């Protein structure tokens, strides 16, 4: 079984090396695809300097958003990949925990595995975004998941091939989750000891969460229209 890990990266020069190194030695990971989504820092230069045989790297000249970065990763990954993994660039050394969502898919416990993080170490005010995502998925599918906005996911290739394109913006995970459950695939969550760059309770953090909320609202409205809900 061939596993490809796709990492969309935007201004992650401080963490991307640790994120890549954390999964490089995993025997279950055959390919690492990093897509720089028009970073304004030196993420591209940092990744270019990494000498790893299983690493592929692509630079998008503009910041097109996470959905487009994932699409590009799917386009350039190995065509014979059996399992496709999405991994955020900011998880650093804890990226090795991704094995906890790869193995269940390898073992056919589920068709899609989602990483469930432990509660954040600092209050970030993310509650209303997570509630919107969780409640919206439950309302549309009848399935209760706690990590509907988690970016760490492992998919059987047949599932990912069902998508003609990735939803845009911060609603990408919620949109995909709705479709996958509607199609009847098995989705499980697995607790991981990952950490990422937590959003704080400052102005920048609240603006970010506001954007997330609006993007999720938009994608949910779109999915309700598509599925006739």
Characterization of this structure:
The chain has 229 residues and is of the alpha/beta class. The protein has a single domain (3-227), classed as Spore Coat Polysaccharide Biosynthesis Protein SpsA, Chain A (Alpha-Beta Complex). Helices cover 39% and strands 17% of the residues. The protein has eight helices and seven strands; from the N terminus they run βαβαβαβαβαβααβα. It has helices at residues 16-24, 43-48, 66-76, 99-106, 127-141, 157-160, 172-182, 203-227; strands at residues 3-9, 31-37, 55-60, 83-86, 112-117, 153-156, 187-192. Strands 3-2-1-4-6-5-7 form a seven-stranded mixed β-sheet, with helices on both faces. It is globular. The termini are far apart. The model has no long low-confidence stretch (mean pLDDT 92).
């Amino acid at each position: 079984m061939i596993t490809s890990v796709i990492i969309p990266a935007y201004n992650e020069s401080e963490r991307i090396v640790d994120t890549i190194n954390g999964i490089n030695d995993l025997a279950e990971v055959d390919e690492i695809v990093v897509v720089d989504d028009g970073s304004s820092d030196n993420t591209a230069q940092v990744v270019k300097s990494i000498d790893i045989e299983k690493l592929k790297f692509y630079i998008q000249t503009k910041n097109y958003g996470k959905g487009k970065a994932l699409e590009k990763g799917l386009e350039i990954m190995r065509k014979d990949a059996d399992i496709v993994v999405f991994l955020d660039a900011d998880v650093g050394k804890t990226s090795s925990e991704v094995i906890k969502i790869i193995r269940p898919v390898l073992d056919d416990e589920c068709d899609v595995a989602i990483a469930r993080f432990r509660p954040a170490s600092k209050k970030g005010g993310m509650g209303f975004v997570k509630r919107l995502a969780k409640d919206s998925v439950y309302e549309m599918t009848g399935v209760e998941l706690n990590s509907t906005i988690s970016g760490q996911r492992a998919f059987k290739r047949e599932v990912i091939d069902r998508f003609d394109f990735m939803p845009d913006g911060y609603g990408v995970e919620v949109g995909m989750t709705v479709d996958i459950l509607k199609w009847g695939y098995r989705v499980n969550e697995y607790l991981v000891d990952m950490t990422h760059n937590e959003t704080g309770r400052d102005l920048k953090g609240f603006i970010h969460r506001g954007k997330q909320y609006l993007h999720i609202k938009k994608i949910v409205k779109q999915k309700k229209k598509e599925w006739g809900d």
